[in-house]
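As the work plan foresaw, our protein records have gained a structure token line. A representative record is set out beneath this paragraph:
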Amino acid sequence: MLQNVRGMRDLMPDDVWKLRFIEGNARRLAELYGYEEVITPIIEHYELLAAKVGEETRKRMYAFVDLGGRKVALRPEFTASIARLVITRMVAAPKPIRLFSFGSLYRYDEPQLGRYREFWQANYELIGSSRPEADVEILCLTNDFLRGLGLRNYTIKVNHIGVLRGILLHEGVPEDGQNAIMQALDKKDWEGAMSLAKSLGVGDACLETLRSIIGIRGYDESTFINEVSNTIKAYPEAISALENFRRTLELSERSGLKAQLYFEAGFARGLEYYTGIIFEAYVPELDIAICGGGRYDRLVESFGGGPLPAIGVAFGVDRIMLAMEKQGISPSRPPRKRVLIIPLDCGLLAEAIKLAGMLRENGIPSEVEVMGRNLSRALSDGSRRDITHAVIIGPKEFSEGKIVFRDMRGKVQEDIRIGDLPAKICPKSSSHRS
């Protein structure tokens, strides 16, 4: 009963500090790129969340019937909620719409390294543009996010899902069948994907094309584009998708994107709503993606909104914390003052509380000794808890309008006037407001 529910965690102060550090960087980046923050509910209607997330995610959603008899679920990702928000609240908003979200998500996955049932994401969505420059913006934002945290040697794996879908559409494979094949490719189950394609009526020539496509990968963009182009000559929809991909890559290169891209023609992502460019980022120390995203031009329309193209990216905060740890990146907390006020007499407790209030009014974090410890034990405890200054209120000093001020790190102390205390702790602090 006292153990955490499996897959859930308590975040201790150091963990929270790291999470908030990443969150702060995420918010600063949103501001720099012009993304406005929105907050959506953790609980949504099941049908909304289940519509396009893919079969694997559907099976792992925390779904239940509420007291009103409605089937609802904890959100497993942000994009469906953002699409709902845009349709219901922002349909007349000027385009493009740039939205940022940060929060917790829930999936009943098997807990393992970097995978939890409650996890955190920073999410960015650019809605309203189908142009390559929108794709490049999200790629640049992704690179700036990872670089801004100090991560090194990361690779962004990219593909255009429209190439695979174009081939399958040409063969008459329905959308549900395409999605099943993409799920297999997402798991790197190449043979499973081929078997599914064959069972859905894909001919031998197309199967051979798919086998060739899956094998095309590498770091050289021009070689990748040429090999894919030579393989898909019989599939007009796939050719159109590849040309769109080529324009995006060309613009990103001309724009000065400084990121290591890895091209993989058989790469797919598990979410069913992707229609264009898709990508994931990896660091060498982990074999799991630390972020991922892509274009979803028909999701809003499928929910009942008008045609509204979009692209987005989600950063796995828990995995990024793990990647930073693996690479020895430990963001240091800014130096902070912490004051412990110790009354030497019970009759001075009220004065200690008032003094703490005065310091807080001046923006100085202050605590009152509330355990009834003697001076020696209170100072010892303060040292263990990184208290930077102690204020000792004794009857004699207080009667003279003074207190004993102790620098806990320098182990020196002096008598000072009570009114001089804020400026003594923080030289730029204002005097006590009357």
